[in-house]
Amino acid sequence: MDTTLSITNSSRLQVSEFILVGLPGIHEWQHWLSLPLALLYILALIANILILITIQHEPSLHQPMYQLLGILAIVDIGLATTIMPKILAILWFDAKAISLHECFAQIYAIHTFMGMESGIFLCMAVDRYVAICYPLQYSSIVNEASVIKATLSMVLRNGLLTIPLPVLAAQRHYCSRNEIDHCLCSNLGVTSLACDDATINRVCQLALAWVTLGGDMGLVFASYALIVRSVLRLNSAEATSKALSTCSSHLILIVFFYTAVIVLSVTHLAGRKVPFIPVLFNVLHNVMPPAFNPMVYALRTQELRVGFQRVLGLGENVSRK
Predict the structure, then answer these.
(1) CA distances (Å), 151 to each of 13, 59, 116, 255, 320, in order?
(2) Phi, psi (5° rounding) for residue 97?
(3) Interval 159-179 mean pLDDT
(4) What's the pTM?
(5) What is the mean pLDDT of residues 48-62?
(6) Is the pLDDT of residue 169 over 70?
(7) How many C-beta atoms lie closer than 10 Å to residue 116's C-beta?
(8) CA–CA distance, 269 with 251 (Å, rounded to integer)
(9) Residue 19: what are its φ and ψ, rounded to 5°?
(10) What is the pLDDT of the chain when averaged over all its residues?
(11) Tag placement on the chain: N or C end, fewer CB within 10 Å?
(12) How far apart are CA 298 and CA 304, in angstroms?
């Protein structure tokens, strides 16, 4: 009878909060990582806000390619801000506790913004495909209206498809453990604490990854395969070089983004032996692209670079040159 009562009480017990312990295995010196992470976050905010101001300020940048870049900047700010304030609070103030609702909301936001970033890269790939393969029809196919439609479709796709992750996580029963060996609320990290079966959560995340990230990656590389085929048919070497240069910045970003996704997946295999590696990679994958995306475009795109200089008050020097 006592055993039955104990089992009943245990089954009814529900933890009220989770504890984000930080980087597993290096808790003693993980606070030293706060400085580079804070600098990356500040860089991401400043660079992406500068991108938005420059695109808004410069009439020559009111084109679909730069409008998509502006949307990417908004997504990058959202992605970095979803995780970095809490991570810095953990490292600086030891504020490790997070309520269940806040944790589930973070799961939703992370996956939504990640899917949005992947979706915007797909839109940018299609933009370059149309520009290079169908230059005469470009202005009629890709315009402000099509950018708005593509953006709304990405918001709806990721906003709706991501809903099952936090909903299913909230349906799990967390009756004993509440310490997450992570700096953020990852879906698999949270559901691994559940006392009941979390197979449906793992299957749902895998399906979401294949549908969104996997589908986008396949379509992006298919677009670039068609671009390369079209470019190789050009007779002029100068025309070939010019065509490839128009999409070099985007190609660098998508290779970096999807390579990081693959590396992040592979590092989870080493998670048991060196547990902090996948956790650190997960954090960096959420903050490094927002910090470096604007820099790649600024270095590779002359129009954007000139726009930066004008916004920063260097317009007179630019005009003299």
Answers:
(1) 43, 21, 9, 21, 38
(2) -75, 140
(3) 94
(4) 0.90
(5) 94
(6) yes
(7) 25
(8) 28
(9) -115, 115
(10) 88
(11) N
(12) 6
Beta bridge partners of 98: 18
**3-state DSSP of the chain:** CHHHHHHHHHHHCCCCEEEECCCCCCCCCHHHHHHHHHHHHHHHHHHHHHHHHHHHHCHHHCCHHHHHHHHHHHHHHHHHHHHHHHHHHHHHHCCCEEEHHHHHHHHHHHHHHHHHHHHHHHHHHHHHHHHHHCHHHHHHHCCHHHHHHHHHHHHHHHHHHCCHHHHHHHHCCCCCCCEECCCCCCHHHHHCCCCCCCHHHHHHHHHHHHHHHHHHHHHHHHHHHHHHHHHHCCCCHHHHHHHHHCCHHHHHHHHHHHHHHHHHHHHHHHCCCCCHHHHHHHHHHHHHHHHHHHHHHHHHCHHHHHHHHHHCCCHHHHHHC
Strands (E), the chain: 17-20, 97-99, 179-180
Which residue in 174, 186, 44 sits closest to 108, CA to CA?
A: 186
pLDDT at position 4, please?
A: 38
Distance from CA of residue 107 to its chain's centroid? 13
Q: How many residues does the chain have?
A: 321
**Pairing relation of β-strands 17-20 and 97-99?**
antiparallel
User: Tokens 């495909």 label which residue?
Assistant: 129
How confident is residue 270, by pLDDT bands cut at 50, 70 and 90? low
DSSP character string of 191-218: HTT-SS--HHHHHHHHHHHIIIIIHHHH
Residue 272 pLDDT more than 90? no
What is residue 148's predicted lDDT score, i.e. its pLDDT?
96
pLDDT at position 276 is: 76
